[in-house]
């Protein structure tokens, strides 16, 4: 049997539809045999490129592609200090490309290498965001008409920055039909009197937890009133409220029977999930900010979450993700891999391989790929009947058209495309 060796490792930057994607291509000494992997870290792409080109590529050149486990383990410790989104994204690009190559060598899709399928396709959720409850509801209706059964809902908080709604970023939205000062929490007088627009201009916007929680609860009331309980709704807090407010919020929303409540706490505060578990049965999803394969261990071991939300390129790719999924299966925890537009189509193909294989798959976040993206990545997973489908081709079943990718170079951004700083009304920083 042939034993191909790693000949070249390339890092490709491309931005076909407004999101900066980082793709790794491993070429072997066997003509036509190569693989692709996702190493996308939109906020810090250039250090990922350096970690691969300056360190991993020379380290791996000439090595056999066969032993992915050994390559993963030796690359992981080759920096001595390990983890973090830069090093793990670099490693993920290598790891996914090697799985792609192994599948092509075996003439099997990666889900077959992992043990075969548990399901035909992977149910997905899509995002419905709006300036008002009606707008969110109308978008939901349109998604439901297209066959989606799981929808993440986010509504603007009038006058404040709101996660999941770009039009409300500057705090100018006033279209929400609900007065947030009349929600389940009374707004304290200092906040009612406070006009964030007048007093301080924060470029990332002003966020306050109390108006946010009132508007989110009003949205859930509206949706259940309009659609009943026949559609699954999800919601992302994005870690913006204090831990004890999070405990209260999880209890308040229990009655709306969410499919899951996401990122209620930041990883630094995740011990608070124990309080949530002891007080309500709202399903919990957590983990997109994890940047080590072991961050999720206590959450699974102590049954503090229901869905693993890890962004798999941030923990090093398929190799660690499949082990975490197996641990979750043993402990009754499902997968819901992070998958917005800043997971490249190659990363989505890697998620899909796991989703088709793993018994404990829960749901997949879908990205609605733009037309340019579909052209740059031939073999993109497709969406039909509310599910993501594989094309069944060997490896990850996806490729990159390098010539076309080069026609969509990165667009320069302020501060290199860093995440916006959102602030409280008093000017202090909100996570994240
Ligand atoms: Mg999220």
Q: Topology of this protein?
A:
Blueprint: E1 6-14, E2 21-28, E3 34-38, H1 45-60, H2 68-77, H3 85-106, H4 110-113, E4 122-130, H5 133-145, E5 150-155, H6 189-193, H7 196-199, H8 209-227, E6 232-236, H9 243-252, E7 260-262, H10 273-279, E8 284-286, H11 297-301, E9 307-308, H12 318-331, E10 334-335, H13 345-357, E11 364-365, H14 371-376, E12 382-384, E13 387-389, H15 402-406
The structure holds magnesium ion (MG).
Mean pLDDT across residues: 93
Number of strands: 13
Can you count the helices? 15
Biggest sheet architecture: 10 strands, mixed
The H-and-E topology, N to C, reads as: EEEHHHHEHEHHHEHEHEHEHEHEHEEH
| Secondary-structure class | alpha/beta
What is the CATH superfamily classification of one domain?
A: Enolase-like C-terminal domain
**Low-pLDDT windows of residues:** 169-177
Distinct ligands? magnesium ion
- The fold-level CATH name of one domain is TIM Barrel
Helical percent range? 25-40%
The Cα radius of gyration reads: 22 Å
Q: Given the C-alpha coordinates, what overall shape results?
A: globular
What would CATH call the architecture of one domain? Answer: Alpha-Beta Barrel
According to CATH, what is the class of one domain? Alpha Beta
Distance between the termini: 50 Å
Beta content: 5-15%
């Amino acid at each position: 049997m042939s034993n191909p060796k790693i000949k070249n490792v390339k890092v490709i930057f491309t931005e076909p539809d407004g999101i900066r994607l980082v793709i790794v291509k491993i070429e072997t000494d066997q003509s036509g045999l190569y693989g692709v992997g996702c190493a996308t870290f939109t906020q810090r792409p250039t250090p990922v490129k350096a970690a691969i080109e300056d360190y991993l590529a020379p380290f791996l050149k000439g090595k056999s592609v066969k032993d992915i486990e050994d390559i993963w383990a030796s690359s992981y410790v080759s920096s001595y200090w390990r983890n973090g989104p830069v090093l793990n994204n670099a490693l993920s690009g290598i790891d996914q490309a090697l799985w792609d190559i192994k599948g092509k060598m075996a003439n099997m899709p990666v889900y077959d290498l992992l043990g075969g399928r548990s399901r035909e396709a992977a149910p997905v959720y899509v995002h419905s965001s709006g300036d008002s409850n009606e707008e969110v509801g109308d978008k939901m209706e349109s998604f439901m008409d297209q066959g989606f059964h799981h929808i993440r809902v986010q509504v603007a908080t009038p006058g404040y920055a709101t996660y999941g709604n770009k039009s409300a970023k500057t705090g100018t939205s006033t279209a929400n039909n609900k007065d947030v000062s009349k929600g389940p929490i009374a707004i304290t007088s200092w906040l009612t009197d406070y006009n964030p627009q007048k007093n301080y201009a924060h470029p990332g916007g002003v966020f306050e937890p109390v108006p946010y929680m009132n508007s989110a609860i009003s949205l859930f009331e509206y949706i259940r009133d309009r659609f009943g309980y026949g559609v699954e709704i999800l919601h992302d807090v994005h870690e913006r409220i204090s831990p004890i407010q999070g405990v209260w919020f999880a209890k308040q929303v229990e009655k709306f029977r969410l499919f899951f409540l996401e990122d209620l706490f930041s990883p630094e505060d995740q011990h608070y999930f124990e309080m949530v578990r002891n007080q309500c049965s709202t399903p919990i999803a957590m983990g997109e900010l994890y940047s080590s394969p072991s961050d999720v261990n206590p959450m699974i071991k102590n049954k503090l979450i229901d869905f693993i939300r890890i962004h798999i390129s941030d923990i090093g790719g398929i190799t660690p993700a499949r082990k975490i999924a197996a641990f979750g299966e043993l402990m009754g925890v499902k997968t819901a891999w992070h998958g917005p537009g800043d997971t490249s189509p190659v990363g989505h193909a890697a998620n899909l391989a796991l989703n088709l294989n793993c018994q404990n798959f829960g749901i997949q976040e879908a990205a609605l790929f733009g037309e340019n993206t579909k052209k740059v990545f031939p073999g993109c997973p497709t969406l039909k009947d509310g599910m993501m489908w594989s094309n069944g081709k060997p490896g990850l079943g996806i490729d990159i058209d390098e010539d076309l990718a080069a026609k969509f170079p990165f667009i320069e951004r302020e501060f290199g495309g860093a995440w916006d700083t959102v602030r409280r009304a008093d000017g202090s920083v909100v996570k994240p």
